[in-house]
Amino acid sequence: MEAYNGFARVYDYLMRDVNYDKWADYIENIFKKFNLRPNTILELACGTGNITNRLALRGYEITGVDISSEMLTIARKKAMDLGINVAYINQDMRELDIHEKVDCVLCLCDGFNYILEERDLISIYEKVYSILNFGGIFIFDISSFYKISEILGNNTYAENFEDISYIWENYFDAEREVCEFDLTIFMRKGQLFERVQEFHEQRAYRTDVVIDLLKQVKFKDINVYNAFTFESPKFTDERINFVCIK
Ligand SMILES: C[S@@+](CC[C@H](N)C(=O)[O-])C[C@H]1O[C@@H](n2cnc3c(N)ncnc32)[C@H](O)[C@@H]1O
């Protein structure tokens, strides 16, 4: 059962309350804070292109990478409808094969929580470091250890709409520090509902561990914020945003 397969068809509906314009504003505010105006951006785990397409519309030359071809099909369609040119590449970021250097690398909305092994995370950071131009900026967020272990973990969520219903059953494996998500989605198909089942796993990373991995990769200027602000994160903050300069 692959993640973000059937789920891709409902992803944008389930994320409809996320303010992606504000998210894109936050990214540009980070550029301003660090006195940068990147031209070229690579976005890892770009999903259905919600941020990718917005940044393309704002004039950046951006490439999106995602492991899910279904998510990318939706991203490409949205780019086409907007009349913008975005390169979408179907790749597992653990085997990132990009050779052109860029001014900025992004990975937003939990992308790195899907990387379950620290050795894979550090090898992605190494690759990011190598493809960034000097002075380039690496911005990413994670769902915090607190959110994954205490809020999502061992909890069940369900919503019931006219055309879509879902049940989201979570189990936090404290030994692996991984949350297992069992997702059952029902999507209307005429008079009937199609049932889609997916299994996702997200690793709960502690902020200190991530900082340590980034330092091992030679990133020197590492800044950590409670996401959407420039304040230091507290343990109970749910999204932690990292900004690193090469
Ligand atoms: C929560 S979605 C975030 C999508 C997008 N960044 C957004 O803000 O809406 C997580 C994304 O990570 C992608 N992903 C998970 N593991 C990946 C991997 N190893 N390589 C590339 N993409 C991955 C999934 O396919 C999915 O599109």
TrEMBL record:
One of its GO terms (biological process) is methylation. Keywords: Methyltransferase, Transferase. Gene3D superfamilies: S-adenosyl-L-methionine-dependent methyltransferases, Vaccinia Virus protein VP39. One of its GO terms (molecular function) is methyltransferase activity. Residues 41-136 form the Methyltransferase domain. This is Methyltransferase domain-containing protein. It comes from Caminicella sporogenes DSM 14501.
